[in-house]
Amino acid sequence: MRRRVVSVTTIVLVWLMLVQPTSAMASPCWQPPVGGTVAVPFSAPACWYCAGHRGIEYAVASSTAVRAVAAGTVTYSGTISGVMYVVVRHGNGWKVTYGKLVSSDLRRGDRVVARSRVGQATGRMYFGLRIGGEYRDPTPYFGRPAGRPRLVPVDGSRHRSASLSVWRCRHLG
User: Fold this and answer.
1) How confident is the model over 110-146, as pLDDT tens digits?
2) The CATH number of the domain where 59 resides is what?
């Protein structure tokens, strides 16, 4: 009987570890890597070699600073066909790609923290996400700043300073 209780307890504990998300597996709430508009949205390819757009592309001003969305370790930093890319692996195993960069001081093995500078963008900036080797649309993982609305006097009198915005994300259930 004691052996059966231990087995059931072990099974329950393993199930809880696999089903219940840990902080490393929880859905992130990222700030976008650049301030700009999405010029080319994600378009999943029909197969591994099929056409598609495996990330999103922002239209930005030249030399715009590109910021890390989360902490991680650089696994690649270099050029492919004359285009500079930096790939960062996060603690949960996800990999994000920052592309179409003019420059970056990061090298393989460097650690980055959230919002640290990854590089500078050209007039376009590519951002891709891979989870378990599969390309995913990164846009659901981006939040939006949310602050309390406030009234601003129209008679020219002094107004109160704005409260700090809080970063809010959509539920990714």
Assistant:
1) 999 999 999 999 999 999 999 998 999 999 999 877 7
2) 2.70.70.10
Report how many domains make up the chain.
1
**Contact residues for 29 (Cβ-Cβ < 8 A; gap 6+):** 141, 143, 167, 168, 169
pTM tops 0.85, yes or no? no
Full residue range of the structural domain in which residue 101 is found:
29-144
Q: Is residue 154 part of a domain?
A: no
Q: Other CB atoms closer than 10 Å to residue 66's CB: what's the count?
A: 26
- Written as six digits, the tokens of 78 are 């270099």
Beta bridge pairs of residue 38: 58
> By the 8 A CB rule, do 98 and 88 touch?
yes
The Cα 15–Cα 48 span in angstroms is: 32
What CA–CA distance (Å, rounded) separates 100 from 54?
14
